[in-house]
Amino acid sequence: MALRNAPFWFLVLLAVALRDSCDGASSHSMKYFYTSISEPSQGLPHFVGVGYVDDQLFSYYDSNRRKGEPRVSWMEKVEKEDPKYWERETQNFRATEEAYRHHLETLRNRYNQSEGLHTWQLMFGCELRSDGKKGGFEQYGYEGRTFLTFDKETLTWVAPDPQAQISQRKLDALPGYNQRHKAYLEEICIEWIKKYLSYGNETLLRTEPPVVTMSSRTEVEDGMETHVCRIHGFYPREIDASWTRDGEVWLQDTFRGFLAPNADGTYHYWISLQIDPKERGRYRCHVEHDGLQDPLDLELKEPTDSKSNLGLIIGFVVAALFVVGVIAGIVVFINRRQEDYNAVPRRNQAI
After folding, report:
1. Which of 190, 208, 262, 350 meets the CB 3.0–4.6 Å disulfide criterion with 235?
2. CA 238, CA 23: separation in Å to the nearest integer?
3. Cα(46)–Cα(304) distance, integer angstroms
4. What is the pLDDT of residue 22?
5. Are 171 and 177 in contact (CB under 8 A)?
């Protein structure tokens, strides 16, 4: 609903950028994604900006609506504490929208390109990991390729080609510019994660345990068995699911599905395995998740309904291959700064 006006390729970008490893303990992140296109058509906006806390869309702006808007109910608590929050967000989004129009024209001339459809994108954010460590990133993209990446350890910008190096030198030469970026990513951004977690704790900090089921079939050609371990309805998204043989993680002859959201905000995932039926008793589907008191280890069952299971397996595989194919050609990302009192920094420095 919130992104109904956004271009399809922008939605795919979000799927790529938001996807994380399925393994590991819970962490929390805040990420912003900006996309500007030179020739909007068929109602698509020139500029779209969205903000995510973990996997929840909480802030939305586009050049058609021209207003920053909340997308989750817990953002009402922010407005009560700070009545001018969305007014400042709107001003920042509008300033960035206007700057990106100029960026597109600058880069089109710099690359000696004709008029037409061109894209300028930004991704930035931070992460508060379960072990207390902090991470931050900022990256620009032009025409779907990486243009500039901020290295906060060296306080420099990294540019992959000569045209991007022009912008790199400009940004690195600005007094205090890179230091402010580092301070935002490592301090201000982290503080906003903590603040948003306190506002949305009922949803962002909840846990829903996974429901794990098994299905299987016997291959007609060679008599081998294919088993599918399906994990449903869990939150948060981080999960450790694997096949084990004799108690050890087993990667051979396995296939992993794509971690995907359900309509209720939970997630589902699946893994498959092909084995010799004589060794069925050696294998288990092992699942660890924050919603479980103890890890689950499900044993494999003898196939009972090959036809129905075959359809499920084929459907899972086709869906996974489609997603992989769609996201394979997309890369993205970034630009500028933030006042200490504000959640979204203005990233509109001339490039």
Report:
1. 208
2. 6
3. 54
4. 46
5. yes
127, β-bridge pairs: 29, 135
pLDDT, position 172: 96
- The structure's pTM equals 0.74
Residue 236: is the preceding peptide bond cis (ω within 30°)?
yes
pLDDT digits (tens, 9 = 90+) for 180-221: 999 999 999 999 999 999 999 998 999 999 999 999 999 877
Radius of gyration, alpha carbons of the chain: 23
- Please give the Cα distance from 139 to 121 (Å, whole number): 8
The helix (run of H) or strand (run of E) holding residue 289 is none
CA-wise closest residue to 271 among 286, 288, 290, 291 = 286
What are 286's strand-pairing partners? Answer: 242, 297
List helix spans (H) across 19-139: 76-81, 85-110
* Residues 79 and 73 sit within 8 Å (Cβ to Cβ): no
Rounded to 5 degrees, φ, ψ at 260 are -135, 150
The strand pair at 240-245 and 56-62 is best described as unpaired
Contact, 173 vs 167, CB < 8 A?
Answer: no
* Composition of the chain by helix, strand, coil, percent to 5: 30, 30, 35
Beta bridge partners of 47: 36
* Residue spans of the chain under pLDDT 70: 1-26, 42, 305-346
Q: Exposed (0-12), middle (13-18) or buried (19+): which is 174, by Cβ within 10 Å?
A: middle
